[in-house]
Design a protein that fits this description.
Blueprint: H1 5-15, H2 20-29, H3 34-45, E1 49-53, H4 58-67, E2 74-78, E3 82-84, E4 90-92, H5 115-126, E5 130-136, H6 142-147, E6 153-156, H7 161-168, E7 176-177, H8 183-198, E8 206-214, E9 220-221
Parallel strand pairs: 1-2, 1-8, 5-6, 5-8, 6-7
Antiparallel strand pairs: 3-4, 8-9
Helix pairs in contact: 3-8
């Protein structure tokens, strides 16, 4: 059976009698770490521009973030598009155009999404006036980590694919590496970096915070954040 793998999964669930509403209810029942929620709301309150870049899909991400009351904290969600068709079946499409022979030309990333391209697009609009904090754990987070420069930060989850790839040759990265193990460490590390960036010296600039990490329902949530410093 051809087609995008996430869409095939949704077709199979629908064949088993599971509707989009059933999937939504399941997503709402999944916990989200209180420290992660606190990190999101605090970073947003500090003026950071939070963005999501994720190889999950819009239905999953928006459902989870809205349920926990933090959807409005994010200025952008870059992920695989999703819709509910007339039969109540959830349909998911790839982020990059599947009709292109080489959708993004990146050998590090899956065909449907290159997060490095997303970071490059954001960087192109920043005119050098943003610093990035990138949080992630998956193999797909390695490419965007390589796009970060001096003055940026990457926060990989220890002993996950991103951490392992970075550890294999840290000299390939220009950004500072700050690992974490759990939600509490994520919150502490992130807010320490944000406070470092928003504390004088005195010229206003912007911080871009990008987070991509697996959640309890096997989606990835990514964020980008802008902070005056």
């Amino acid at each position: 059976m051809g087609g995008f793998f996430q869409d095939r999964m949704m077709v199979e669930l629908h064949a088993q009698g599971r509707s989009a509403d059933d999937i939504r209810d399941c997503l709402k029942s999944a916990p989200l770490d209180a420290h992660v929620l606190s990190a999101i709301t605090t970073a947003s309150a500090l003026g950071c521009d939070l963005r999501v870049a994720s190889d999950a899909n819009a239905f999953f991400i928006e459902t989870v973030l809205e349920h926990h009351g933090v959807l409005g904290c994010f200025s952008e969600i870059s992920t695989n598009p999703a819709r509910v068709d007339g039969n109540g079946r959830l349909r998911i499409s790839p982020f990059h155009d599947p009709d292109d022979s080489s959708p993004h030309g990146c050998s590090l990333c899956p065909e449907n999404m290159c997060k490095g391209k997303i970071i490059e697009r954001i960087q192109a609009t920043a005119n050098g006036k943003r610093h990035f904090i990138y949080i992630g754990d998956g193999r797909g987070d390695y490419c965007p980590s390589l796009k970060l420069g001096e003055g940026d930060y990457v926060m990989p989850k220890e002993n996950y694919p991103l951490w392992n790839l970075i550890s294999s040759n840290k000299q390939l990265l220009k950004a500072e590496v700050h690992p974490w193990n759990n939600g509490e460490e994520l919150e502490q590390t992130l807010l320490k970096l944000v406070n470092k960036l928003i504390t004088p010296p005195a010229q206003p600039s912007q911080v871009e915070y990008k987070c991509d990490m697996s959640n309890p329902v096997s989606t990835e949530v990514g964020q980008a954040l802008r902070v005056p410093h």
